[in-house]
Amino acid sequence: SADVDAVDKMGWSPLQEAAGAAEADAVAMLLAAGANPRLENRSMESAMSHARERRSAPCIALLRGALSPEEVAIDAAKNGDADHLDAMLDGCATSIQRADAALSSQRHHRERSSLLHWASCNGHLACAQLLLRRKANVDAHAVNGWTPLMAAVTSHEAAVVQLLCGARASLHLRDSTGKVALDHISLTASTIPSPN
After folding, report:
1. Contact indicator for 181, 147 with CB cutoff of 8 Å
2. Does position 113 have pLDDT exceeding 80, yes or no?
3. Beta carbons within 10 angstroms of residue 38's beta carbon
4. Quick one: which H or E segment has residue 6?
5. Who wins on pLDDT, 43 or 33?
6. Distance of alpha carbon 77 from alpha carbon 85, whole angstroms
7. pTM (2 decimals)?
8. Quick one: angle between helices 69-79 and 96-104, nearest 10?
9. How far is CA 24 from CA 29, 72, 106, 159, in A?
10. Residues 47-70: tens digit of each pLDDT
11. Count of helix runs (H) and strand runs (E) in the chain
């Protein structure tokens, strides 16, 4: 029998192909056969990434069912799905701390080790607001020392930068290379409010 997770030259698995084609029946069959929904291709895209790109609600629902609550919360923060993130955190299916711990264990996410990092770097203001209301650590450190503010600054996400500064994110914390958030900036200085 063929390996259900065999990948092509670009690192695409059959599950990623099915999700990318919005083929919910194929996604369901592959998941039932034991396909790994966590695999990422060379571009670091998962089956969920492809299902979201196609806006395939049936595929997204199937893939969510195959992931842990922490992974579903991570996906929601990465993709700006504030309603689903809120539901995951409300239903006590997971906590910010458990989701952040799951992210920290993923070696390839050195710059984004918390839900707030993902929401910040992708400009998902509603998710960032929700996480801050729920007491996410505004100065959480990623493996490389990056804070959510550094992630937002680097990604040119001015609204999130302003939100984080308003939530008193530190402008003085340094990453593993000794840089502070302002060292990461290529926006105009007027984008970031001065701390009070």
Report:
1. yes
2. no
3. 15
4. none
5. 33
6. 7
7. 0.79
8. 90
9. 9, 18, 27, 36
10. 998 999 999 999 999 999 998 888
11. 11, 0
- Tell me if 127 sits within 8 A of 148, measured CB to CB: no
pLDDT at 119 over 70: yes
- Written in H, E and C, the secondary structure of 92-151 is CCCCHHHHHHHHHCCCCCCCCCCHHHHHHHCCCHHHHHHHHHCCCCCCCCCCCCCCHHHH
Residue 188 has which token pair? 């105009």
**Residue 192, both tokens:** 């970031």
Give which of 59, 90, 58 is closest to 73, Cα–Cα: 90
d(CA 35, CA 136): 33
b/e per residue, 63-90, with b = 16+ CB within 10 A? bbebbebbbbbbbbbbbbbbebbbebbe
Specify the length of the chain in residues.
Answer: 196
- How far, in whole angstroms, is CA 8 from its chain's centroid? 25
**What was the pLDDT predicted at 78?**
87
| Cα distance between residue 168 and residue 135, in whole Å | 13
Q: How many CB atoms lie within 10 A of CB 186?
A: 7
